[in-house]
Amino acid sequence: MRRTLWDCIRDQFTPQPPVAKADLTGKTVLVVGANTGLGFEAAQHFAKMNPGLLILACRSESRGQAALEKLKANTGCTTAEVWIVDLADFASVKQFCDKFEREDGRRLDILVLNAAILAEKYEPTKDGWETALQISCLSTPLVALALLPAMLKTAREHATQPRLVVVSSEMHYFTRIPKKVLEDPEILKTLGSKEYCTPAVMATRYHCTKLLNILFVRALTARLPSDSPLIVTTVNPGFCHSDLLRGLSGIVWLLEYLFGLFFYFSTEVGSRQYVFAALAPMGDAEELRGAYISGSKIVEPSDFVMSEEGKKTQDRIWNETVDILEKVDPRVGVTIEKYLSEGVVE
């Protein structure tokens, strides 16, 4: 599917459906990146549905607690907690997953992986990866794969169909993996290298990470059994007011700010897409598996994603991601061996 900037702007003037609703009594909802912006608004929506436990996964203890108090005051929810995780630090992600794993009986019905930054220049993490790439394309899959067994256990024990929602963006339509990168044996290593991350590359790094999110979800779905109760999707909230702009400066920030004044959804409106992906009636479950959701409906992703080149790239990046993450956390290898197949996208 091809889209232009005008298509995206036109969508910004399309009335959005009201937030989806469900009774979440007894269920556990985990929102990563929940202390501000779209993640916080989504958490507030879930908080109004009587969740058994609502986990706000945040990088900062102080900001997380402030968000928790605000959420309680706004919704009356008494079952929300703050858990700390820094997706720019593999050790923090492992500790976060360790905490979940220690409570063997804990269920996990809805996992919303909402984490991204807009980065103007190359900055490495302590783990040696470009920060935006690690947050969105390594730590996000790490959380998904480490907690996947808990979601499948929840499905078995409670006869439910858990949802794993990875936040992407319509900006994935405006990028593809360059051929010179595809010629390298290690795509992610090249994308994350200091030599590759020139200012021009970093100007579209957000687009690239959102494309990689879609490829991850499609690769994961291809490897889940066809009758798996777990439904994995990506979702586009649209252009929204959020804290993403804090990563920009100068003229780029000003242009984005002015664009937002005229065209952006409110954060609350954008967050409805997260909730839709997590709660939409199943209908034909096969249609939702690996789907890209935008405007509260399933939409075809970019031509690159759907192309033969895109499918081959998807499998190469999956294999590289797994190889990297198995070295970070042995749980990844266990999850893949026990729950996933070697399926390659046809």
From TrEMBL:
<dbReference type="InterPro" id="IPR002347">
    <property type="entry name" value="SDR_fam"/>
</dbReference>
<dbReference type="Pfam" id="PF00106">
    <property type="entry name" value="adh_short"/>
</dbReference>
<dbReference type="GO" id="GO:0016491">
    <property type="term" value="F:oxidoreductase activity"/>
</dbReference>
<protein>
    <recommendedName>
        <fullName>NAD(P)-binding protein</fullName>
    </recommendedName>
</protein>
<dbReference type="InterPro" id="IPR036291">
    <property type="entry name" value="NAD(P)-bd_dom_sf"/>
</dbReference>
<keyword id="KW-0560">Oxidoreductase</keyword>
